Amino acid sequence: MKPLKPTETIYKSQGTWTDALTVCKNTGIGYSTNQIYREDGNPQEDHPYEDCSCHYEFNNGTCWYAVFDGHEGQKASHFSSQLTAEIYFSQLAEKRTDDEVREIMRQAFVSVETGYIQSIGDLLAERLRLQYDLPESSNSYEAYQKAPHVVESINRIHCELSSGAAAAVALIHNNKLYVANIGNCRVLLCKTDANSVLKVVQLSVDHDLKNEDELLRLAQIGINREHLRNCTYLGNQENTRCLGNYLVKGGYKEFEDLSKATQEPVSAEPDIHGGIVLDDSCRFLLLMTAELYKCIEEATGTDQVNKYIAQCVVEQFREQATLTGVAQAVVDKAVRLHHDWYMSNSNSDKSCSAKREDITLVLRNFNYPMPRAIKTPTTPSSNSSNSYQTQNTLIEAASSPNSTIRSNDTTSTSTNRTIKIKEIGSDNKVKPYVDFSVFYRNAEMAKANGTLPDWWDS
Predict the structure, then answer these.
(1) Which region among 62-76, 319-333, 386-400 has the lowest average model confidence (pLDDT)?
(2) SS3 for 285?
(3) Is residue 287 packed enough to be buried (19+ CB in 10 Å), middle (13-18) or exposed (0-12)?
(4) pLDDT reported for residue 245
(5) Is the pLDDT confidence value at 434 over 50?
(6) DSSP helix/strand/coil, 202
């Protein structure tokens, strides 16, 4: 086993080293643990929360955001959060070109994947030893009858080896945005055009069996493309790319539908885009695990889920006092929609899933107004009618002119989801936070009466 890199050693020896990092205060987090739907309405989790997320501000305005969507346990998602260490300890400050920054991000994914595979070496060795202890038998049932404890131990190890994670990360460096993802986590950038129309651009790529590029890649290594079109899973997971999950990588020959592949079918190579210049048109950024948009798609039947989510965020900007309140309200709405949909359809539709998975949403606000934001003496009330110009903002799903950026939503000029908001006017001044006119009027009267205190003129 190769020795750990310095960054990996630091990360492992100081498990809470990120506590010293500055948390980005322009960010809100929303989440919900998985749930099994019960007829009696009582909530019940199927497994411990498997997602991870982070939102940090490094030196010189560099910011880092990430969501990790784990499956088959927390092992891979927690390990994958080492991407933070890889980026933080990289020579990012020395990189000037977009290609150099993208390569830093790519190498971070490679390093974490390599480190994870090294970390499960003991598990692989134990599995091999147990396989030698299996008695000769014609099938798995006979093996279990002869040596149940051995088979159970092997199955336990297989569950651990199946642990994997999808990931979506965003890096802000030199006022540019860089995005990378692997699996089906999504990144949405919401920005306005010259007509104050809020465009929703998907910057990530869904690596699943609905992606024609991924089907082509798998066909080129010997997997039947038409067969994959009728499949939901590739081996033991939905994603065609992930971090971790050794069984669909080094152990892929054990799956019948993957056994003919000429190389590992599930890749750990991320899609990376950027840098996108962050100007005043950029309003907010969303990073989400797949269950958020899947719940909404299933419950509402919408074919423009990105647009729907952006609309929910805008609505909550108007209602909530904090960014975490905005993100959590969006997640809560998705959870409620899916639960109500299931309860109303479960008796008639046998295809309804009786549970949903964990949900995590990271919201980074750039300059979208929050009329109800918590006020401090240094941040005057934004509810003053004279502090805003009323504008109409429409939400549209948009595809970027850059062909490398894909969106599952089509451009729409529909005004069915028109939302009227109030934005800060560039020419308007904020009213005084405190009115001192009464104080000064009383002071003048006291001066005329000769009743001012001795220290007044000092």
Answers:
(1) 386-400
(2) strand
(3) buried
(4) 95
(5) no
(6) strand
